[in-house]
Design brief:
Blueprint: H1 18-44, E1 47-51, E2 56-63, E3 74-82
Antiparallel strand pairs: 1-2, 2-3
């Protein structure tokens, strides 16, 4: 399409150019890579909680989101120890 504002050769402030879109796409890929690295790191962490003066200990595992079917991360009880 033609530029409707001859004083602004880039096409106006409301129309991002191809380079802007490419930069946004690259930034989105960079953010996705960082998120994947954090998800992997969290899934390797051992999350432990205790209750009842240490007599109950629960180990929880982080479950990364499974896109696009399940976009929300979750947590799963991996182990429960009860000392009577």
């Amino acid at each position: 399409s033609k530029n409707k504002d001859p004083s602004n050769p880039t096409g106006g402030a409301n129309q991002p150019g191809m380079m802007d879109q490419l930069a946004m796409f690259k930034k989105a890929q960079e953010i996705a890579q960082k998120k994947n690295a954090l998800d992997k790191e969290l899934s390797n962490e051992k999350i432990v909680g205790t209750a009842a003066d240490g007599k109950i200990q629960i180990t929880v595992k982080y479950i990364p989101p499974q896109l696009p079917a399940n976009p929300t991360p979750g947590y799963e009880a991996a182990n429960v120890e009860i000392d009577e």
